[in-house]
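hiii so um. not sure if this is the right channel but i have a protein structure encoded as tokens and i wanna go backwards to a sequence. like what aa goes where. can anyone help
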């Protein structure tokens, strides 16, 4: 997916293909952003209960935490940005094949003891209400050559996450088992789509076109569902669905409310009242769900937002940073995107208003997740305002060996050399 991005230090734009990584297109603002670059074949993604994005991949590691602005490792190629001197490695502490023998040698059962092989497709973080509790929040991905579903236990590690190998969820003896994706539905059961073929993506002939299958995996008998149409429900009922034990309903309600807010006045007052009524600790997850919906509806004014998010919950504070910086243009793979002078002046003024708060969080916030989000958000700020926040972040000695944070600081800081090289000196010191 090509994007128009400006090379460092020049006003021109040129088209650079996105080979690997993640991107997003905002259907209301009509804006495209390259969220991250690298990896090999990222063929599945999902969000955890805090709204953090993860994806599966082949060859260059199978599990990635999508830190916005990341430059991830690639299979035998360099990053297109010459100032990315080091790329981020995958976020698992293991591989599903013997890296010493190469990924090409992990087929035909050779890597069964390690997890099945190098190729993965599909991703699901189970947040449904049918499978046993032990599976909730686990990351599941399909191992193509291993004919199985791998299970990863996600743990917080430093500012981000690490995936630990857990027993495979299922294996198949069927040589035609070529599943591609999996997802949970409204009753909490999980659907798996199966290509059902003996070949793979690299084959040119002999591929079967009519042999696909769909499986459903449930624990016991799911609670019966009566027919429903969520799009016919009033806003108050959709808001109440944010308390559902099945994240499927939460996401559908968020989608519908966001669509309605794009064409009519958003029911933001009702949502805010809903948030205000949540004072008990057990409502933490629901508060975050509602805030993410308000975010997607663009229904958060700064005063209300700051009063509700900058509190003791690190997930809320991390999303607070994202909320404050989300409308600023994100750097492209090669650096800052060229802006018209008038737009650049408005962005510089707006960023100056939130700069003191971001600087305070960088210097004092106890959460590694918040600090990593700040490092990621450097790539949204005007280049001339990045060095002070970077200086505060690199002063946090607890992050010096973090998997991602030092690299994210540099990715955001490197364009400063084009406009104010002297500002880099205290950061280096």
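sure thing!! here u go:
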């Amino acid at each position: 997916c090509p994007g128009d991005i400006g090379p460092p230090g020049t006003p021109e734009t040129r088209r650079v293909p996105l080979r690997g990584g993640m991107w997003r297109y905002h259907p209301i603002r009509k804006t495209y952003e390259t969220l991250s670059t690298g990896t090999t074949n990222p063929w599945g993604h999902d969000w955890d209960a805090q709204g953090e994005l993860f994806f599966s991949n082949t060859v260059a590691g199978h599990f990635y935490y999508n830190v916005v602005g990341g430059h991830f490792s690639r299979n035998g190629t360099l990053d297109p940005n010459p100032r990315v001197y080091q790329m981020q490695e995958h976020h698992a502490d293991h591989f599903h094949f013997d890296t010493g023998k190469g990924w090409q040698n992990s087929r035909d059962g050779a890597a069964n003891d390690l997890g099945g092989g190098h190729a993965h497709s599909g991703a699901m973080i189970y947040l449904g209400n049918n499978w046993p509790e032990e599976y909730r929040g686990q990351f599941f991905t399909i191992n193509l050559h291993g004919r199985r579903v791998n299970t990863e236990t996600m743990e917080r590690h430093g500012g981000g996450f690490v995936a630990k190998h857990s027993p495979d969820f299922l294996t198949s003896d069927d040589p035609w088992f070529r599943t591609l994706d999996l997802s949970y539905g409204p009753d909490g059961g999980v659907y798996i789509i199966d290509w059902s073929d003996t070949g793979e993506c690299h084959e040119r002939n002999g591929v079967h076109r009519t042999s696909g299958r769909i499986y459903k995996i449930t624990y016991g008998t799911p609670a019966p569902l009566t027919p429903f149409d969520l799009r016919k429900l009033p806003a108050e009922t959709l808001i109440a669905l944010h308390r559902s034990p099945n994240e499927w309903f939460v996401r559908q309600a968020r989608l519908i409310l966001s669509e309605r807010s794009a064409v009519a006045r958003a029911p933001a007052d009702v949502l805010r009242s809903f948030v205000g009524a949540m004072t008990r600790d057990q409502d933490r997850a629901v508060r975050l769900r509602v805030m993410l919906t308000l975010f997607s509806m663009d229904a958060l004014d700064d005063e209300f937002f700051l009063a509700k998010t900058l509190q003791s919950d690190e997930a809320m504070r991390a999303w607070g940073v994202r909320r404050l910086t989300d409308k600023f243009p994100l750097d492209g793979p090669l650096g800052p995107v060229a802006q018209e002078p008038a737009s650049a002046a408005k962005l510089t003024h707006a960023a100056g208003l939130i700069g003191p708060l971001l600087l305070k969080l960088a210097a004092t916030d106890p959460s590694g997740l918040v600090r990593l989000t700040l490092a990621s958000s450097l790539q949204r700020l005007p280049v001339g305002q990045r060095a002070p926040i970077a200086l505060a972040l690199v002063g946090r000695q607890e992050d010096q060996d973090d998997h991602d944070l030092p690299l994210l600081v540099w990715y955001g800081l490197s364009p400063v050399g084009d406009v104010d090289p002297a500002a880099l000196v205290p950061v280096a010191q």
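oh and The chain is about 30% helix and 20% strand.
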